[in-house]
Design goal:
The protein is of the alpha+beta class. It contains 23 helices and 21 strands. Helices cover 29% and strands 11% of the residues.
Length: 718
């Protein structure tokens, strides 16, 4: 304002969609003069560019030229009567700036109302202005300075309260003690995000990353939506208004788009075909198919967690109590296998062909009645993996497998094949000797270097399945009973150098824990059995630690390591062991019959490193992890749980669900749901304007769900 050559300035910060100019009091910038219409023009941002547009048929001067609308830039001038608006460069934190120069001189069309008949208000105005300045600025400023210089005094003067635009929310009043400087970092400045985040350190960022306007929304200030100085009212500016400044205001039923494959299907950790169980198995057993029998709501009422095996499955899939070794279960479904697992074996050898090489002592089990004969199955996958960890025996084993040479039939074997066979036989006896001293230490020595990142102490202990050196000693004595005065230590001392002599030092022998004598009664006290020159492990039912440990280890070893011949040998042996245990390659999804048939229900999935793992537990969502579209089950279960669940979750009886669990379809985006997608109409039946349930945007959509990218300041000290 210009008065007698003096200039006064007034700075204002505004947050608005457009700046309206006119003579009416409702305008953002109210201008005087006969040439100014009540609503003359508007200044707004369109596609990142600043525009001015006149209303009705009005015009204004843009850089001296009469226009109705124009694109404007910093430095441009807009003139309406005696009012001049200059476009400024955008100050930090603002979209644009305007400078208004309002001249009190009358317009060219000014009439008698601007003449001398109007009493002058200059004197009273100056008096009021000075009083206002002293009351609202000088006195509070002096009082504030007094307070800061007398910290701890009993002064009752609260100068900051004079400037307050309203009461603080109780939470902020308590946290700041009413100190304005806790949030307002400078005099007469608006609150910055850094002040908010100094306390709200765990606050997440704006909207999901996939939101089309993610970057624009990330730049919004906290105070854009969370408005203070409203007392006990919510700090949120409002549910729908915050969203509907961009989104349609027509409401959920009319404006919300149709759902697309909601909820998004995901590959569950436990493979469970709801359709076949409800329509076939539960009908056969005359059991009620109740959702709440298997799904238990969490404390917050948001998620439905999966119950334990004992709660859900044991009634139908448990073992028959009449026989520990039974393979037949309730419902005729072999889900828990108790068949013994062959761990270590002395394979039948073609001793006639091996006469040309030195293999030391070996029991002749080919004759009838001699311990029922040696097995023709060859080395077990467990043994192949343990032998593969040694470069010499691993390379020999790989060559024999590649040439399809069997130890029980070597008539067509070359001299090199016979040498590899001898290396394997000596390595088998070396492995057996180590196990007689300490089975667990044997596995540690042979697997720890290869599986350092794949297993831990607890898993290594589970790999032995409670095997003791006493058991191994008893079995070894029985196997070589025909060899008079036989000793593994003495036999291996005669091992030729060309067949891996000095392969590895044997673990120090531990004193026996008992004084065992060969006999079936003593062997029955362990999970281990001996049958036809084979050490067999007897699984203990569901969640057998031995089966789980070897499945996890073999799966990890089959995928890790840098490319090299030695690594490839270990990986191939581990893959062979895993395939044999999980039986994935021989059966259809959900039909595995390996050890414990674990992979029939426990599915393969990629971990965070994109390596496959077996999922032993059903995924439980983190209640503290926010999602963009939360759903509260407790609020919707208004009838009995089973009836209410099936109102929304309709079973899909197609075969796509099981086929999606094939190993070739592990990508999460290829997952198929066991239920049909929920349509929008299901929700709209209740969530309507004035209906049974609210239809606010924020009922279903969270705003702060992405990691916060702000850099938090150091705590302020005063």
């Amino acid at each position: 304002m210009q008065r007698d050559g003096e200039v006064s300035y007034l700075d204002l910060d505004m947050q608005t969609q457009e700046v309206t100019l006119g003579s009416a009091a409702s305008n953002v910038l109210r201008l005087s003069g006969k040439l100014v219409a009540p609503l003359h023009a508007s200044i707004f941002v369109k596609k990142g560019q600043l525009w001015v547009k006149c209303h009705a048929k009005h015009k204004l001067l843009h850089n001296g030229r009469a226009v109705r609308q124009a694109k404007i830039h910093p430095g441009d001038t807009l003139e309406l009567g005696n009012n001049k608006v200059t476009v400024l460069r955008s100050p930090p934190g603002f979209d644009f700036g305007l400078q208004l120069d309002a001249d009190a001189a009358p317009d060219a069309e000014a009439g008698p109302e601007t003449g001398d008949n109007v009493p002058s208000v200059r004197g009273p105005a100056w008096v009021i202005g000075v009083l206002t300045l002293v009351t609202l600025f000088v006195l509070p400023l002096l009082a504030a300075q007094y307070q800061r210089s007398n910290i701890g005094s009993d002064s009752d003067l609260q100068a900051d309260k004079i400037w307050s635009s309203g009461e603080l929310h109780p939470a902020h009043e308590w946290a700041t003690g009413g100190d304005c400087a806790s949030c307002h970092e400078a005099w007469f400045s608006r609150t910055r995000d850094t002040a908010c985040l100094a306390c709200h350190t765990d606050q997440l960022g704006h909207v999901p990353l996939e939101h089309p306007e993610h970057q624009a929304l990330q730049s919004q200030r906290c105070a854009s939506c969370h408005q203070e100085h409203n007392g006990q009212q919510s700090l949120l500016a409002g549910a729908n208004p915050s969203c509907q400044s961009c989104h349609s205001t027509a409401g959920f039923v009319d404006a919300h788009p149709e759902f697309e494959n909601y909820p998004a299907p995901r590959r569950t950790g436990i493979l469970f075909d709801h359709a076949s169980h409800k329509n076939d198995h539960f009908l056969d057993t005359l059991k009620p198919f109740a959702c709440d029998s298997c799904h238990q709501m969490d404390a917050a009422g948001q998620h439905q967690n999966t119950a334990s095996f004992e709660t859900m499955c044991l009634d139908c899939h448990g073992e028959k109590a009449s026989s520990v070794a039974s393979k037949v279960f309730h419902h005729g479904d072999q889900i828990v296998s108790t068949a013994p697992v062959a761990f270590f074996v002395l394979p039948r050898l073609d001793l006639k062909s091996l006469a040309a090489v030195d293999i030391g002592a070996w029991p002749d089990g080919s004759k009838k009645g001699s311990r029922n004969g040696l097995t023709k199955l060859g080395l077990t996958p467990f043994m192949e993996l343990l032998l593969a960890t040694n470069p010499a025996s691993g390379a020999a084993l790989a060559r024999l497998n590649e040439n399809k040479i069997k130890l029980s039939s070597l008539k067509k074997a070359s001299d090199a094949d016979l040498a590899d066979a001898a290396t394997i036989i000596w390595s088998v006896k070396q492995l057996l000797l180590e196990m007689t001293n300490d089975p667990e230490k044997t596995l540690v020595n042979r697997l720890s270097s290869t599986a350092a990142s794949a297993t831990g102490d607890r898993q290594l202990a589970a790999l032995t399945g409670q095997m003791t050196e006493d058991f191994v000693k008893v079995v070894t004595a029985q196997w070589f009973a025909e060899q008079t005065g036989f000793s593994l230590e003495k036999d291996l001392q005669q091992r030729p150098e060309e067949y891996g002599g000095g392969e590895r030092p044997s673990p120090a022998s531990k004193p026996p824990t008992s004084d065992p004598t060969p006999g079936i009664e003593w062997i029955r006290t362990t999970p281990w059995r001996e049958h036809k020159y084979t050490m067999q492990y007897q699984p203990g039912g569901h969640a057998d630690s031995f089966a789980r440990a070897w499945l996890d280890l073999s799966l990890k070893l089959s995928q890790q390591g840098e490319a090299s011949q030695e690594v490839d040998i270990v990986q191939n042996a581990a893959q062979k062991l895993f395939d044999g245990l999980a039986d994935l390659e021989k059966t259809k999804p959900g039909k595995a019959k390996g050890v414990g048939a674990c992979s029939k229900c426990h599915t393969l999935a990629p971990d965070h490193n994109n390596n496959l793992i077996l999922q032993w537990v059903s995924e439980t969502p983190d209640p503290l992890q926010p999602t963009s579209s939360p759903f509260n089950h407790a609020a919707h279960l208004v009838t009995t749980a089973n009836e209410n669940c099936l109102d929304c979750h309709v079973l899909d009886t197609s075969d796509d669900f099981l086929s999606s669990y094939q190993q070739a379809s592990l990508a999460p985006e290829q997952a198929v749901s066991n239920f049909t997608a929920i349509e929008k109409e299901v929700c709209a039946s209740c969530h309507t304007e004035g209906g049974r349930a609210s239809s606010e945007c924020t009922d279903c959509h969270n705003y702060h769900v992405t990691p916060q990218k702000h850099v938090l300041p150091e705590p302020k000290t005063r």
